[in-house]
Specification:
Chain A: It holds the Pfam family WD40. Chain A: Belongs to the peptidase M20A family. Chain A: Keywords: Hydrolase, Metal-binding, Protease, Repeat, WD repeat. Chain A: This is DEBR0S3_05314g1_1. Chain A: One of its GO terms (biological process) is proteolysis. The complex is a heterodimer of chains A (907) and B (356). Chain A is of the alpha+beta class. Chain A folds into 3 domains: 421 residues, Methylamine Dehydrogenase, Chain H (7 Propeller); 280 residues, Aminopeptidase, CATH 3.40.630.10; 121 residues, 2-Layer Sandwich (Alpha-Beta Plaits), CATH 3.30.70. Chain A contains 19 helices and 47 strands. Chain A is elongated. Chain B has one domain: 4-Layer Sandwich (Glutamine Phosphoribosylpyrophosphate, subunit 1, domain 1). The longest helix of chain B is centred in the middle third of the chain and has 21 residues. The two termini of chain B are 28 Å apart. Classes of the chains: A alpha+beta (907), B alpha+beta (356). The interface between A and B is large, with 54 and 48 residues.
Chain lengths: 907, 356
């Protein structure tokens, strides 16, 4: 989905810019009523906490504040976020609770939690207990269990502990509150009632009966139709009992129970409308509390409820009794509520059905301010340190302060259904659910433009930074095959990377100019670890990568702009994210983080070219010329391919080589007309086809002499690697993999003729483009020689007067690594540790010319660690990279780089 | 005993989506009424539909002058009225009252069909007032002439409407002035009307009187008030359900569902019987309470008098109906496939369009 653009960002109250604040919106009206008359200067001055980037931020920056977006096939109605564990829970219209990991953006799972829309979610303060309320009239209580095995992706299990129902037809459940000290759950529902239950006490449960559940119990109307699935107890799985103690002080509730709300715990007509919102102020300290009246003296916990009747009611809760203390009339239905206790004020925000937000002072129970955002419902409210966010019928707006007229709209088009805060550390995030079935994670502070300035040394900060830098890098269309269009962008990108490496700590970072091509970046990080290394010598590791990308010309087949990163459902979409900008940044940030924490035990040399997709033009010359500058190298590493599927991490140990050639046959005569001159002389096209036909036999085998003879027999050990693959990767077949990876092949790419190409012309020349993929045991020079001589011989046998020319256009040596060497051993161990999955060794049918070249140049071995998944769509439209893969690659490299020994030494 | 249906929406609704298409539409209810207390599932004594037209709505905005609802009534059974089906296919409104009648009192005549109207006000009744004949004179002498003169028919329902108008008038809201009546006043007038009737009946001192069933619906074109009331502390009132949501969508022919994407009540329906078999979409109005629709918001108020039950879990009995031998058979649960639309299963499905 293309993200919304500039036009969506505007001041909804902009007319006010032209007006004096005194005459503008209702907020000023209100302040006049309250006896405060803001002067123009105070209006300008009052912008506490408003960062400067915000006030003049452009639409693009607003879009940049979207950190991630998830989609579902139905509307997401409510949200709950655990900042402590970095988890996001979403209640959906189709009765699911979705679980997302806010660190990796990956969906961790979903459970069918109810039989109706999940209308509200609430997390207990300990963040290990969650409550869900639904249109099926049930409240369910869940233990959140996080299963972490090693460093693999964690699993989150929602364990149902309680199911609560009311014997009364209460309809939808809109709001839930929880009082921790007395283990009391309260919920507000459609029939204007508030019900509550204590989880500690068991006496009410005697009455509880599966057959009394609202979906099951006899109803005169609905059960008059039929029974079927409706009647069985299947709606509510009540698993067996198991009680567990939580570690690190987390509460864990007892096993699953069914609770019927006793009639004494139902406050009928708590409101005269739907009870849309509830909030609590718990553990009130009478010494400090600013709550008005004698509430603080009398109650430890109070509950606030907002209803469709426009009232906010404040209830005191004590000894299983709930007492109405106050009613605040908002005149319009209260759809959302938010309380904020600060040192010097205790306030209540109410979002109303007419687009107004009311601010009440809970010390005096007076309405102090009210301002209008839009016409229509204010569905939700959220407060960060600096902004009030208002989720409305028309989208989300943020206000720096209630007394500030400046309202800015976030770039969404649709109604906002829910908002919540995520504050893992210094950075504040906003999460919103919209009517278009999406959930969006926004960076509230708005990442500053100089994204290379890390604020702290926490690894998740550099993670965010890494993705921000990738965003910037993808925005350069560095298409090396189209220099006429993109040369400047490629150069800008190269400079950006050079400076990035410098800022991250490289002692030197330079651009090596390549004649008629994009420059190569060469940067060196020096080991800075105080830990004594095993030997006197510090290992030097060269990372090879490329910043150029394949073109993205068929933009219509992309779902988003290829030159703009679109973060969706745990993936980053954009040209080059997987090939090769994302993996490159994983390596850069692995080194940078080690360097920053003074723990880099090797020298890391980055050699990043800009012509990989154009056959690494000029690369070898430049490297050869700068060999001395680069210095001695112990290992070459790269990440420039993909897994075999989407699940099993891979190590790549072999690539095929390639010899590409153009074969041209031409005559001395010009193009002619076949009706006039047909049959007079030998035709170049026919000659070419004849020659080409000799390359393969009738079964498709290549007839070039000795073509297959050097291919090594498949050994037992190697065979076992293939067996492992087919066990782990679905759909993989041994003979296919063998053919792709360890057998040479010949491809005829195109045949082209001279002249206008219509069907009466005898072309005077014909050209064929072909290539041969070769495997490690084949000698590239031998292959070239036999290919050329075979073609020439075939041509000679034709005894034609035409001429032939063979031109080798591209070549790459095959590459095969020793999977037993130190680098692969260390990588294998770290992959297994960090993914929690045993990796597989794979090869690839494609070719990367630079690997073997670098090995030979620096007399060392290379190791190839694929980063992305097979579904990454590299070179295709909608190229993507899973964020988890990018993060794990960085983790793996951080470990690996510090473990690699110098070449020649064993581990 | 009758059935009624009220629609109030932010967007206009096609009448046929309420009246004819849904599995348990009010027309289907007229021959497959599942909840009628007397269990004679035929509401064949005429019907009526009243709605405010979109054009009038616009004109009212400009001129400030109201012209009242459009009302279509007939004494033929609703399912046999092709005109109704044709009109329903083409008529849209934001506020719709519909009623099918099974006469319990009064003769079969068009004047006895609901909804009743007076200027911009519309009124319907589902239920029956016990011993109405004996309080009729009292009621009529209580009301002003101008409201007495509106009576055309003979039913308890129409007299209740006249009493309501009189009550509203005496509260200071003259219904013929066509001013918008605050929802609160509308509700108070309706509750007061119920109280008058209830008190007059109890003044008769009948031994073991049958309770009166007073499910009234009234609107001034702006707000709507519906009551669910029984003059008994232990008996159940006539059924009344409501449903709110953002969209009423037809998921498959005849199968409607209330979509609830958010908290908005863009669509509000109140009906004697649910229009669909989607259990989660409907909630019953508590006995002895009113439901008030103000703009697009539903509000619930209890009617607190001697018949009010404070305990929300108290189960009222259906003995009243049973003692009259009218409890009949509640369709019993049968182990059939839930996927099969019940009307079809019972061989009573009708293709409304096909009939036209």
């Amino acid at each position: 989905m293309p993200l919304s653009k500039h036009e969506n960002v505007f001041y909804r109250l902009t007319q006010d810019d032209k007006k004096l604040p005194l005459t503008s919106s209702s907020s000023d009206l209100q302040s006049t009523v309250m006896g405060v008359s803001p002067s123009i200067t105070s209006y300008r001055d009052v912008s506490p906490g408003m960062d400067s980037t915000f006030s003049d931020s452009s639409a693009i920056e607003m879009n940049n504040s979207i950190v991630h977006r998830w989609t579902h096939n139905q509307s997401i109605i409510c949200l709950a976020c655990s900042s402590k564990y970095g988890l996001l829970f979403c209640g959906t219209q189709d009765s699911y609770i979705l679980i997302f990991d806010l660190y990796t953006f990956q969906k961790l799972g979903q459970i069918k939690a109810h039989t109706g829309s999940v209308l509200c979610l609430h997390l207990a303060k300990c963040q290990t207990i969650m409550f869900s309320g639904s249109s099926d009239s049930l409240v369910k209580i869940w233990n959140i269990k996080i299963v972490q095995s090693g460093r693999a992706q964690r699993q989150v299990i929602l364990e149902l502990t309680h199911t609560i129902y009311s014997p009364v037809d209460i309809g939808d459940i809109f709001s839930i509150a929880w009082i921790d000290s007395s283990k009391t759950i309260l919920f507000g529902s459609q029939n204007a009632s508030i019900s509550f239950a204590h989880l500690g006490k068991t006496k009410h449960e005697d009455k509880a009966n599966l057959s009394s559940l609202p979906s099951v119990r006899y109803d005169r109307f609905f059960d008059s139709m039929s029974s079927g699935s409706n009647v069985s107890g299947s709606t509510t799985p009540i698993p067996g009992s198991s009680s567990e103690e939580g570690d690190d002080g987390c509460q864990i509730l007892m096993a699953s129970k069914l609770i019927e709300i006793p009639s004494t715990n139902i406050i009928s007509y708590a409101h005269n409308g739907y009870v849309y919102a509830m909030d609590t102020i718990c553990d009130i300290d009478s010494q400090k509390s600013l709550l008005g009246g004698t509430i603080a003296e009398e109650f430890n916990d109070i509950i606030l409820s907002g209803g469709g009747d426009g009232m906010v009611k404040i209830w005191g809760f004590k000894e299983n009794k709930i007492t109405l203390l106050r009613s605040l009339n908002n005149m319009e239905p209260v759809l959302s509520m938010l309380t904020k206790e600060e040192e010097d004020c205790c306030s209540l925000y109410c979002g109303l059905a007419n687009g107004v937000v009311n601010l009440w002072d809970l010390s005096t129970f007076q309405l102090v301010r009210s301002f209008e955002t839009v016409k229509g419902d204010v569905n939700c409210l959220s407060l960060s340190d600096t902004f009030l966010f208002v989720g409305t019928q028309e989208g989300i707006c943020k206000k720096p302060a209630v007394n500030d007229n400046c309202v800015r709209w976030l770039p969404t088009n649709t109604a906002c259904l829910a908002l919540c805060q995520f504050k893992p550390g210094d950075v504040s995030y906003l999460i919103s659910a919209s009517m278009d079935n999406t959930v969006t994670l926004w960076n509230v502070n708005m990442i500053t433009k100089s994204c290379t300035l890390a604020k702290s040394d926490k690894s998740d900060v550099s993670t965010t930074e890494m993705i921000e830098v990738l965003k910037k890098m993808v925005s350069f269309p560095t298409v090396s095959k189209q220099p006429e269009k993109y040369m400047e962008q490629s150069r800008k990108c190269a400079s950006f990377i050079r400076l990035l490496l410098k800022k991250l700590g490289a002692v030197s970072s330079v651009l090596l100019p390549v004649p008629n091509a994009n420059p190569v970046i060469l940067a060196t990080f020096k080991a800075n670890s105080s830990k004594p290394s095993n030997s006197n010598k510090v290992p030097r590791i060269l990372w090879y990568g490329h910043y150029d990308v394949i073109e993205a010309d068929h933009i219509e087949s992309w779902d988003s702009n290829p030159w703009e990163i679109t973060p969706t459902n745990g993936y980053l979409y954009g040209r080059g994210v997987s090939d090769n900008k994302g993996p490159l940044l994983s390596a850069i940030y692995a080194v940078a983080d080690l360097y920053k924490s003074k723990n880099l035990q090797c020298d890391a040399i980055f050699l990043i070219e800009g012509e990989e997709e154009a056959g690494s033009y000029g690369f070898q010359d430049i490297v050869t010329a700068n060999k001395a500058t680069i210095g001695d190298i112990d290992w070459v590493m790269l990440s420039n391919s993909y897994w075999l599927d989407d699940n099993v991490p891979c190590l790549n140990y072999g690539l095929r080589g390639v010899v590409a050639a153009n074969v041209e046959v031409w005559s001395d005569k010009p193009d002619r007309h076949s009706g006039v001159d047909g049959g007079v002389s030998r035709e170049p096209t026919i000659d070419l086809v004849n020659v080409l036909s000799k390359l393969t036999d009738d079964s498709g085998k290549v007839r070039i002499p000795e073509f297959y003879s050097t291919v090594k027999e498949l050994g037992e050990e190697e065979r076992s690697l293939y067996q492992q693959i087919i066990q782990k990767v679905q759909g993989a077949e041994v003979h296919e993999l063998l053919t792709k990876w360890r057998m040479p092949s010949l491809t005829l790419h195109k045949v082209h003729v001279s002249g206008p190409g219509n069907s009466t012309v005898i072309p005077h020349a014909a050209t064929a483009t072909l290539s041969v993929r070769i495997v490690p045991t084949q000698d590239i020079e031998e292959v070239k020689k036999s290919l050329v001589s075979f073609i020439l011989q075939s041509f000679k046998n034709l005894h034609t007067e035409n001429h032939i020319k063979i031109e080798i256009t591209h070549e790459a040596e095959p590459w095969l690594a020793d999977t037993k060497n130190a680098a692969y051993k260390i990588l294998y161990k770290n992959l297994q540790k960090i993914w929690g999955i045993e990796p597989i060794f794979i090869r690839e049918g494609g070719s990367i010319p630079s690997i073997r070249f670098l090995e030979k140049t620096f007399d060392c071995e290379a190791a190839h660690l694929p980063t992305g998944q097979s579904s990454d769509n590299a070179h295709l439209s909608n190229e993507r990279l899973r964020i988890t893969n990018m993060l794990k690659a960085k983790e793996i490299l951080e470990e690996t780089l510090n473990e690699l020994p110098c070449k020649g030494s064993n581990i | 005993m009758c059935r009624f249906l009220i629609y109030k929406g932010k967007e206009p609704m096609l009448l046929s989506n309420l009246l004819t298409k849904p599995a348990h539409s009010i027309i289907n209810q007229s021959f497959d009424s599942r909840l009628r207390i007397d269990h004679q599932p035929i509401n064949g004594d005429g019907f009526g539909v009243g709605y405010y037209t979109l054009e009038d709505e616009r004109n009212e905005l400009e001129s400030g002058k109201v012209s009242g609802p459009c009302v279509y009534k007939a004494i033929t059974p609703a399912w046999n009225n092709l005109n109704l089906q044709r009109l329903a296919e083409k008529t849209r409104s934001r506020l719709i009252f519909a009623h099918v009648r099974a006469s319990s009192y009064g003769v079969l005549s068009e004047t006895n069909c609901h909804p009743f109207t007076y200027h911009n006000i519309m009124f319907m009744h589902n239920g029956g007032i016990s011993n109405f004949k004996r309080i009729k004179r009292k009621l009529i002498s209580h009301i002003e002439d101008e409201f007495f003169l509106t009576l055309q028919g003979s039913t308890d329902s129409e007299c209740s409407f006249a009493l309501f108008l009189d009550t509203l008038f005496k509260m200071g809201y003259d219904p013929k002035l066509d001013h918008v009546v605050p929802a609160d006043a509308l509700r108070k007038a309706l509750v007061k009307t119920i109280q008058y009737i209830k008190d007059w009946v109890s003044e008769l001192n009948v031994k073991d009187p049958d309770p009166s069933l007073m499910n009234f619906a009234v609107t001034d074109g702006d707000s709507i008030v519906v009551s669910r009331y029984v003059s008994s502390k232990v008996d159940e009132a006539a059924s009344l359900y409501f449903s709110t949501g953002s969209k009423f969508i037809e998921v498959s022919p005849g199968q409607f569902k209330m979509e609830r994407l958010n908290r908005s009540q863009d669509i509000i329906m109140v009906a004697s019987e649910p229009l669909t078999f989607e259990r989660g979409d409907w909630i019953c109005v508590p006995t002895n309470s009113t439901i008030t629709i103000k703009k697009q918001t539903v509000m619930l108020h209890p009617i607190i008098d001697e018949y009010y039950q404070a305990n929300p879990t108290f189960i009222r009995s259906r003995e009243f109906a049973e003692s009259r031998g009218l409890m009949g058979t509640i369709p019993k649960e049968q182990g059939t496939d839930k996927e099969v639309p019940p009307l079809e299963r019972e061989g009573r499905s009708r293709t409304v369009l096909g009939a036209a």
